[in-house]
Amino acid sequence: MLAEVLIQVVVVVGILLPIAIALFVGRERLIRTRSEWRTRLKTAAPTIAVLLIVLLINRFARQRAPRLSREIGFHLTASFYNIEGEFILLFQSIATPETTAYFSSIYVYGYVFLVVFPVLAYFTLPDTRMFRRLLTAYALNYVIGLVLYIFVIAYGPRNVMPHEVAETMLFENNPQYQYLTREVNSNSNVFPSLHTSISATVATFAAITRSTFPKWFPVAVVLAASVAISTMFLGIHWGIDVVAGMLLAALCVVLSDRLVGRWSVTELLGERFEDRLPWLDRSE
C-alpha cells in the first residue's frame, strides 16, 4: 500500500510541477539554467549535502526518538488541551465532503508540491543565494523540529477527541495515507507542526522573491494557509502547534539569512567537492 500511495504522490506532483514551471518560472530562465546548471550546482553543493545529511539523520532519528522522548520528554497533551480547549472544532463548521477532500489533498499532495517547487524555481536564478537560503531554512526546520519532538510529548486532537473530529479525520476518509505518514512521523510528534513551519517558510520566501516570481507569491500564500488549516481541520494538530510552526518558520528564515553568505562553505569545501565530483567542472 505504501508503494501505491508514493506512486500517487509522484504522479500528482509530477503533473503539477511542469505546469507551475511554465506558469511561474518561464522559458528564458530555463534556457539560461541549462547552460549554467553545473556552476550553480557546484556553488550550492555543500548546502545540498548538509540538507541531505540532515534528512538522513532525521529519518533514522525519528525511528529512535520516541524511546528517548519517553525517557526525557515532557508530556504536554493535557496542557495544550487545557489552554486551547476545543478551538479546532470551529473548523468542523465548514466540514463537507468537498472541504474534507480539499484539505486531505492539500495535506498530502499540496504540501509536497509546495516544498518541491521553490527548490526548482530558485535554482533557475543566476544568484544561488536564495536557493541556498531555502535549503538552509529547510534543514533548520527539521533539526529544530526534531529536537522539540524529543522534548515535547503531545498527541493531536484525533487522539484526544476522536469522536468529535471523526467526520474529517484524514485516516477515516483516506486510510491509505497512514502508510505514508507513519514512515515520517509518530502520532506523539505534533509540536510544532512541521507541515505548517515548512509551508510558512515557503510562503515567506515567496514574499521575499515576489518581484522575481510575482505570480507564485499569491499561490504560495494560499497553499501555505491551506496546509496550516488542513492540519487542524483533519484533527492532526492543535492551534498551538500551528502557531509554533509559524514562529519556527520565522526563526529559520532569519537564521538562513544570517548563515548563508556570512561564511562560505563552498570556499572551505569547494576543492574537495570538485575533486570528488569532476563532472561539476566549469570547463565542461
UniProtKB/TrEMBL annotation:
The chain crosses the membrane at residues 6-24, 44-61, 106-125, 137-156, 216-236. Keywords: Membrane, Transmembrane, Transmembrane helix. It holds the Pfam family PAP2_3. SMART domains: acidPPc (SM00014). InterPro entries: Aur1/Ipt1 (IPR026841), PAP2/HPO (IPR000326), PAP2/HPO_sf (IPR036938). Residues 134-257 form the Phosphatidic acid phosphatase type 2/haloperoxidase domain. One of its GO terms (cellular component) is membrane. PANTHER family: AT30094P, SPHINGOSINE-1-PHOSPHATE PHOSPHOHYDROLASE. This is Phosphoesterase PA-phosphatase-related protein. It comes from Natrinema gari JCM 14663.
